[in-house]
Design brief:
mainly alpha, two-stranded parallel ribbon, 2 strands, 46% helix
Length: 91
C-alpha cells in the first residue's frame, strides 16, 4: 500500500481506484472484515489522505473483492456488507 499511496500522491490521481484488503505479499482481493483487517495493511484513512494529497478532484473507489469459487454466497454477501459498513465510517 505504501508504494500505491506514493504513486497516488505523485500521479495526480486516477478516476477509478480499485480497493481491496491485502497483506502486501500478494494481490489478495480480501474484503474489509474484522478478520482480514487484522492481517491487512490497507487503512482507509491513509488511502483517502493520499488521494486528497494527489490533487485529484474526484475519484471513484471501486471494491475489488474476489472470493474463492467455493465460498458460500451468504458469506460473500456478509463480507460485502461488512466491507461497505467499514468504509462508510471513513467516507
Amino acid at each position: 500500500m505504501v508504494k500505491r499511496i506514493i504513486w497516488q500522491r505523485r500521479s495526480g490521481g486516477s478516476p477509478v481506484i480499485h480497493v481491496q484488503q491485502t497483506d502486501g505479499k500478494m494481490d489478495r482481493h480480501w474484503p474489509f472484515t474484522r478478520q482480514f483487517n487484522q492481517q491487512g495493511i490497507i487503512h482507509p484513512q491513509k488511502a483517502l489522505e493520499a488521494i486528497e494529497q494527489s490533487g485529484a478532484r474526484e475519484a471513484i473507489l471501486m471494491l475489488e473483492i474476489i472470493h474463492p469459487f467455493e465460498t458460500e454466497e451468504t458469506q460473500v454477501l456478509d463480507d460485502l456488507k461488512e466491507t461497505v459498513e467499514y468504509w462508510k465510517k471513513y467516507l
